Fold this protein.
Amino acid sequence: MTEAATLFQESLGDAGREYLEGRGLAEVAGAAGLGLVPGDVGPEWQKYAGMLSIPYLTVDREVISIRFRTIDPDDQRPKYLQPPGSEISIYNMPALARNHKTIIITEGELDCLTLEAYGYTAIGMPGANSWKPHYARALDGFQRVIVAGDPDDAGQKFNETIMSSIRRATAMHLKADINDTASQPGGFLEIAEAFARAGGEKEV
């Protein structure tokens, strides 16, 4: 898995870089190990050719799985794919090792990386229904937990599910998802204000 993730990262190319720059993620792409699956990849990975590769790392930064996202709006494949039988759990687990007071849980990897680009400590869940109660134990070291589901019914359920699992958790509300908000004029300030309203304390 690590070998594949390294190959994909090295194959990011102009198309991958252009996509990440458009999403405001170019600066964090390297540390996150983001890549692009090349067209001449072996049969095991051929079904993901042309997709963004998003490696899932342990706290020690070992690759345990990879998720894939389409970047071409005309791509007819599902927006996200993952290898059959792979277990996708918490995204950006290295953030769990930081000695910070506040952590944000996002609905999606790119929203997580957007917050990381802004200097927040964040982890992501691969979808609105992917939270599992035992994940709460991984957050015991954080005084404040903020959940940031998308502004739709699924996102509201995502927030409520996590807040019922972590009683000290609060919700952070935006008019659009985090990455879309960040791409708009004044988006950084909007995110900062929503974070503060939810009781967050940004590390200096």
